[in-house]
Amino acid sequence: MHHFRFLGLHDRLQLVQVFAVVGAGNEAAGVDRRELEMVLGRVRADHVERLGGESQRVDEVRRRGTTGACDEDAPHLRSGGMARRALVTGVGGQDGSYLAELLLGHGYEVFGTALSSPEGLPDAVQLVDDAPAAIREFKPDETYHLASASFVPASWEDPVGTARFAAESAAALLDMLRREHPGGRFLNAASAEMFGIPRETPQTEETPIAPITPYGAGKAFAHFLAGAFRRRYGLHASSAILFNHESPRRSPQFVTRKVSRGAAAISLGLEQELPLGDLSAERDWGFAGDYVRAMWLIAQAGEPDDYVVATAKAHSVEELVAAAFEHVGLDWREYVRYDRSLSRGGAEAPALLGDPTKIRQRLGWQPEVGFEQLVALLVEADLEELRAQMASAR
């Protein structure tokens, strides 16, 4: 990969420190690409066709008047046949890696920030050390702000760092766009954690924001800031309010990967039990590949706006566990042990269920991977990885 270094940016030292924290907690899980392709099946088989369909979807939305322009006339696209440029913060994480692949498939030139050289990231992605400087230097058509210390419980261990990241990273990017590249588009990856204990179910773009964790509060700050810059300076700044989305690239400390890896390990005789917290907690789980497709569609819209990205179907942790163990032919009740220390207690956000009506009606987005298929995808990826480890240890 290509690396670009920028010097003399003393006023951005805090931001660099924040990106380092983000990179440490948001790296890809390291699943071998060939193994993942076998598991994805249909999703991988129709990848090229879906990319073409997404472009047609954008054109259709524009013809209906939502965006009011075709590709060759849109001000954020480059003239003369030049490839569009995109900057992705946190490109080494789950969402960043899927988004980079999507953008490259659309012919973009992709730049990104990451703590190190992430495994499995396409060579075409050009790593940069400072995102605001990259905006000034390369003038990306679209900036996707995905970098985040996204493991919610860890935000209690470092609330100051969490707050610093939320404030400085979003503000630095938006301010650089305002000053140096006001025609660029900005997509902020917000989170359903902003809703805290929601006053209504399902949650929409109008649901009151009342976070109950430092992580949720930080996400709310960046979300509000994007809206503020949109209103004050006319920036094309939007937020994708993302509900839980998973993949084999998700870090193992997340409950979805913990469950899928636990079920796989127990089925192979590598472990005997799986300790978990509250099994009644419900989440609206989707596939990360579907959600980055939603982010891209939001960035293509003629007018900036905020969109809930969700499946509209809630599942409990118990359902997740049951599906994972069923996939390997085991009864989860024989292996799962309750561990009180793994519960969030009063900070647990119940009944997070999103209503994606707005993005479905305006941009034509809908998820392609269902809950059962997602769980099977996770378990199969962990089975393949563990089997490979067993074989190499012999």
Describe it for me?
- This protein has 394 residues and is α/β, with parallel strands linked by helices.
- 44% of the residues lie in helices and 13% in strands.
- The chain has helices spanning 13-25, 33-40, 42-45, 47-63, 94-105, 131-138, 154-157, 159-180, 214-233, 255-267, 288-300, 317-327, 357-363, 371-393; strands at residues 3-4, 85-89, 109-113, 126-128, 142-145, 185-191, 236-242, 245-246, 274-276, 282-283, 286-287, 306-309, 315-316, 336-338.
- An eight-stranded parallel β-sheet has the order 1-4-3-2-5-6-7-12, sandwiched between helices. Strands 8-11 form a two-stranded parallel ribbon. Strands 9-14 form a two-stranded parallel ribbon.
- Helix 9 (214-233) links the parallel strand 6 and strand 7 (236-242).
- Helix 1 (13-25) packs across helix 8 and helix 8 runs parallel beside helix 9.
- The longest helix is centred in the C-terminal third of the chain and has 23 residues, at 371-393.
- It is globular, with a radius of gyration of 20 Å.
- Residues 1-76 have low confidence and may be disordered.
Descriptive tags:
394 residues, alpha/beta, Rossmann fold, eight-stranded parallel beta sheet, two-stranded parallel ribbon, 14 helices, 14 strands, 44% helix, globular, disordered N terminus
